[in-house]
Amino acid sequence: MSYIEETLQEVHEKCNAEPEFLQSVTETLRSLQPVIDEHPKYRRYAVLERLTEPDRMIMFRVGWVDEKGVYHVNRGYRVQFNNAIGPYKGGLRFHPSLNLAIVKFLSFEQTFKNALTTLPMGGGKGGSDFDPKGRTDEEVMRFCQSFMTEFARYIGPDMDVPAGDIGVGKREIGYLFGQYKKITSQFNGVITGKDSNWGGSLMRPEATGYGTVYFAEEMLEKHKDSLEGKVCLVSGSGNVAQFTVKKLIQLGAKVVAMSDSGGTVYDKEGINEEKLAFVMDLKNKRRGRISEYADKFAGAEFLEDKSPWAIPCDCAFPCATQNEIELEDAKTLVENGCRLLCEGANMPLAAEAVNLLLEKKVLYGPGKAANAGGVATSGLEMAQNAQHLSWTREEVAHRLHDIMKSIHELVSETAEQYGRPHDYVMGANIAGFVKVADAMIDQGIV
Ligand code: NDP
Ligand code: 2IT
Q1: Of all residues in the chain, what percent carry a pLDDT higher than 70?
Q2: Residue ID of nearest Cα to ligand 1 atom 29
Q3: Which fold has domain 54-187?
């Protein structure tokens, strides 16, 4: 049996109750075959065994009391996966579906993603099964304070630097940072995604969505094509989706769908700046449902409980959550003429869906590369915090665009080097792997 298959068998035995983690490890390791064959040192130094076992997994109880005086207990998580190339770095997710398998897959993916950003960051991820939906600001604040009371001891600007993810935005980051400061008396770069008024980086809110679109632009440009006039579907309507739509509009694409967990809005005329401003106000201030878009704008249709993938398009941008595109959805997208799919979300495609897109030669930008602009800009926030400076919007925007171009170049060159120019999964995984694996070998087995 090959080294990869042997390792996978061990991981499957050890982690058989963790489907998302197994999905991500299986896809990643299998795409490393040529580099593992080429360099026996990876086996000699047991790199795959070490790379599939997190440095540590932290779980803790978070107790809090709601406004009616009802007591609640949630679970907090942090998986510090790998710090071979820098401090652990990755977001916190607050969503009722969160469990250890999901945090493990996210932190494993993050390790490779961060290695592609050109910045020195290791991989981590965390969060809670707490559901902020329907909670008042004060309830969210109490939860965040209780979470941080335990969490503060595990993090630090040179140790582990959390940020946002699903359900954790500007509001939650503020409450988390406030409590960290209270406990430690330190004002430092321990968390990113802060408001630009108190240590955050300009452009961080935009970074993931803009970066995803820049990556798509690079992919198309390589094929002498552009986003101009392309009909696009975007799933989700949170941070990543909003700024994906914004950049697509700026580049002349026509976005006809957005969604949330209640369904999809289909707007044949296209979502313009004004309609997007409505979505941003609805989601960020009023915390409403996307169905309200169809009430507000005549001609838009609300498809209850439906995802956007049956709507004909040229390009698709999944920006909601993992496994939101199954094999059948991918088939429908291909049949309807979709030519490019770029991932704003982490692992939004089931394994069979990825294979189908690669087989059908759809331009496919895997999240590890395509959505790395968010964490890269978090890296720029860390750099600014360490310098006690704030860079201008133009400076950060320029760096973000350059980073996305570099990531695309690295991924596409690596894919070419290994004889599969179309396969950005292989390109991203090998490029990220080599950087982390070689650092691990240099530093000895620890
Ligand atoms: P938000 O919380 O801002 O938005 C999430 C969106 O996805 C909402 O519209 C939400 O709908 C929808 N969604 C979440 N879970 C589900 C689900 N189980 N089924 C259907 N819809 C769902 O999160 P972000 O925009 O920050 O994150 C979106 C994705 O991007 C995630 O996969 C995240 O890991 C990834 N990502 C985020 C980065 C960042 O910088 N924020 C960086 C890189 C990747 P509803 O409100 O109804 O729940
Ligand atoms: O998945 C991701 O890359 C994020 N949620 C952003 C992480 C970060 O540290 O900015």
Answers
A1: 100
A2: 345
A3: Rossmann fold (3.40.50)
